[in-house]
Amino acid sequence: MATLENLLAGRPHLERLTRLVTTAWPEHADYLSKSFAVRTPTLLDTSDDMAEVVLRLAGDNAEQAAQDYRWLCHVIREEELNFARTDSYRYSTFAETNAHVYSDDVFMQRYMHGLLLSHVLWYMHASSLHFFLGRLAARVKSEGKMMEVGSGHGLLIYLALTRLGMKEAVAWDISPISLAQTKAALGQLGMDDRARYAIQDMHEVDAGSEQFDLIILSHLLEHLEQPVDALQKIRHTVAKSGYLFVNVPLNAPMPDHIQLLSDPNDAIRMIEDGGFRVLEIASHTTQAASLPRALKRKIAVTCSIIAEPR
Asked: How far does Cα 297 stand from its chain's mean position?
């Protein structure tokens, strides 16, 4: 296997992010070597590009973010052990995740820091970003209007505006605190003036609501008690010739996941029941394992889906 030094040669942002993490967690170097070794040169280039954005978002908190990434991996390990024992996620309702996760400000700050770094360091997340950039670029209308529900760090909004050529962005969330975090993140990336922010529950969208050329639901549906109802409500906000982009995980125990999907067909069925036609789906597995092996061993997978309203 190629060494980390060889894999990262000529990719300074990925090298810097890796150095931050391995300084905080030396034992993780082997995992990162395996994660990078299975990436194509093109995917490594995308990873370096994304590392630059992630480092800008982390800013002066980069060293703490690396510590929080290590903490997050240990939290997830506990969830994986519970999943192996019970074949289910720890919680099944929003009330439970709200009580144990979302209402804990310290936990959420560390959680969000750790997840930010995972967009680059985990193969399945980096691969899904690569799919997002590559497959949507040929589809979305240049100068169009996009919206993301639960936009978190604002990373996909930033990429839609800067890489996909979208003109205007809107962020929806039910939490004013989360929206404030998105606004601050996009401000760090110089995009705050190109985005609007709205408190909006997907389950309460009116049929005559504002329409968008691209709607993003990335790692959101697994947090909802009624994802199909949410999809049905939001379907009317996709403009004619517009698209829905979804990232949704399979067999991925996390502290705030309540919808357990076990197969890509589960994801397709959920999108179709929500009133959409699936145009493309890609399955990004942990460490690029074969999909049959990942499904058999219940290893986490991210499904990226491009769909249109039926």
From this structure: 22
pLDDT tens track for 184-229: 999 999 998 899 999 999 999 987 789 999 999 999 999 999 999 9
> β-pairing, 301-309 with 238-250?
antiparallel
Sort strands 168-173 and 145-149 into parallel, antiparallel or unpaired.
parallel
**DSSP characters over 56-123:** HHHGGGHHHHHHHHHHHHHHHHHHHHHHHHHSS-S--SHHHHIIIIIT-HHHHHHHHHHHHHHHHHSH
Yes or no: say if 281 and 269 are a contact pair by the CB < 8 Å rule.
Answer: no
**Strand 276-285, strand 301-309: pairing:** antiparallel
Residue 267, SS3 per DSSP: helix
CA distances from 145 to 90, 170, 304 (A): 37, 8, 21
With a CB cutoff of 8 Å and minimum separation 6, the contacts of 77 are none
Give the global pTM.
0.96
Q: What percent of the chain has pLDDT over 70?
A: 99
Per-residue tokens: 276: 């959409």
Q: Where are the alpha helices (DSSP H) in the chain?
A: 4-8, 12-24, 29-37, 41-58, 62-86, 94-97, 105-121, 123-137, 155-162, 176-188, 227-234, 264-273, 291-297
Torsion angle, alpha carbons of 221, 222, 224, 226, to 10: 80
Greatest Cα pair distance, the chain, in angstroms, is 55
Residue appearing with tokens 């049905």 = 232
For residue 59, is it left (φ>0), alpha (ψ between -120 and 50) or beta?
left
Structure tokens that stand for 116 in this block: 């930010």
Give the bridge partners for 247, in sequence order: 218, 304
Q: Output the six-digit token pair for 98.
A: 């709200």
Average pLDDT for 38-45? 96
